[in-house]
């Protein structure tokens, strides 16, 4: 089944993988996860839905509040949120998409305004999903429970 640890026993998981915490019922978020998967991302990227116990433990461990309105990316044990999380994950994708990661040099107050606008309307933009698209057998190992 899945080779990823289900529980956080120590910080090895957070230091060895790039973890993307996303809203599992958000259509927009699910499309973004599929986009990442289709770009042949770095093999260290792992995905976990906010709605899972693993996500709650990761967020607690990183001292990040539970907030479905923001994506969280944990890279080398450091948690990034909102636009900084988006830019962090983009650097692990193939070119030309990786170029978007340079947006992290734009002041966060500006990029988070755009992020918050999309987050506020994401359910209206793409709706919600009752169940996620089933990942391929190869992709299944990239998702945490």
Structural key phrases:
4-stranded mixed beta sheet; Glutaredoxin; alpha+beta; about 140 residues
Summarize the structure.
This protein is 40% helix and 12% strand. It has 145 residues and is an alpha+beta fold.
Explain what you see.
Helices cover 40% and strands 12% of the residues. The chain is of the alpha+beta class. The N terminus is likely disordered. It is built from six helices and four strands, in the order H-E-H-E-H-E-E-H-H-H. Strands 2-1-3-4 form a four-stranded mixed sheet. The chain has one domain: Glutaredoxin.
Mean pLDDT: 82
Strand order of the largest sheet: 2-1-3-4
N to C succession of SSEs: HEHEHEEHHH
**Overall body shape:** globular
Kindly state the percentage of residues in helix.
40-55%
Rounded radius of gyration (Å):
14 Å
Strand tally: 4
Flag low-confidence runs. Answer: 1-10
Number of domains: 1
Proportion of beta-strand residues: 5-15%
Q: Can you tell me the CATH class?
A: Alpha Beta
* Structural class by sheet pairing and helices: alpha+beta
